[in-house]
Amino acid sequence: MKIALLGLGSVGRGVAEMVDKKDLGITITAVADSKSGYMDPAGVDIPSLLARKKKTGHCGDTGITVADIIKKATYDALVEVSPTNALTGEPSTEYIRAALGRKKHVVTSNKGPVSLAGKDLRALARKKGVAFRYEATVAGAIPVMHLLEHGLSGNEILSISGVLNGTCNYILTRMADEGLTYDQALLEAREMGYAEADPTYDVQGIDAAIKLVILTNAIWDTGKKLADVERTGIDLLTADALRLAEEDGCTIRLIAESCPKTHVLRVSPRILSKNHPLVVEGTLNALTLTTDMAKEITLIGRGAGSVETASAIIGDLLYIRDQYARRA
């Protein structure tokens, strides 16, 4: 299977490294970053590519653009892992449309296009007879989309709830375990590399809300947007609130919830008993699916990381390869 890789940040490097390390039957034939591109129909030399990127900041020729890669490169699937624009989804949405228009499969970790234009992109993929997959947009290495599509086939999904942001979960864990203030825990999260210099996207629940929208639309095809989510972050949470919860044998986690029948679509701090399945530690993610036949199923795993996200992307690629090989 030949792939073109758009984006060579943390996730893109993770994908490239795993393709190089493991015998997966995947060949990278084109790569683009924000400033350059490189194409080789026979397959890119990945160690040389990564060394060049590290040394120069460019993956290839500054005269080769993303548009050139999409339109001219030889590939079966486009892997789109460029940075997310949560407000517009661009330019990634147009990259994805262009590849689907060429009847190329698309796998992405980019939450912007999926949350804002997922329904249209899925419809375009169906029209062109190709796949559009986005396991990596929600909960990192946890294979929730695969479970929803295959492991729970025949079940009606009644509701979902979960911890979908590792940064917030780390902050809340440290506040509860060590009695840190929010500011102290946030500083520690920054020092550990879990929080950005501007943590707004995480701590105000925006990231979790976008992931909730993606899951909700994937399950129920409701066409929800970020603005539809009732959202409260953790940035105003005090150490006293965690201490009071502790006195009752509870703790606090930022929980994303969706249930169409009760019109619930929200992200907010919730008080949970310490033995609740969604009370996970550190940067872990957790998600509970409530169904009519299987009842409650809880998934726990790493919600971020270059290799962890690469796991989800590679899983989608191999699924596409196997499914479409059977149809051929």
Please give a structural write-up:
With 328 residues, the protein is α/β, with parallel strands linked by helices. The protein folds into two domains: 2-140 and 306-327, NAD(P)-binding Rossmann-like Domain (Rossmann fold); 148-302, Dihydrodipicolinate Reductase, domain 2 (2-Layer Sandwich), CATH 3.30.360. 42% of the residues lie in helices and 21% in strands. It is built from twelve helices and twelve strands. The strands form two sheets. Strands 3-2-1-4-5-6 form a six-stranded mixed β-sheet, sandwiched between helices. A six-stranded mixed β-sheet has the order 8-10-9-7-11-12. Helix 1 (10-21) packs across helix 12, helix 5 runs parallel beside helix 10 (206-220) and helix 7 (166-178) crosses helix 8 (182-191).
Could you state the order of secondary-structure elements as H and E?
A: EHEEHHEHEHEHEHHHHEHEEEEH
Give the CATH superfamily of the largest domain: NAD(P)-binding Rossmann-like Domain
Number of discrete domains:
2
Oligomeric state of the chains? single chain
| pLDDT averaged over residues | 95
- Structural class of the secondary structure composition? alpha/beta
Radius of gyration based on Cα positions: 20 Å
- Large-scale geometry: globular
Number of helices: 12
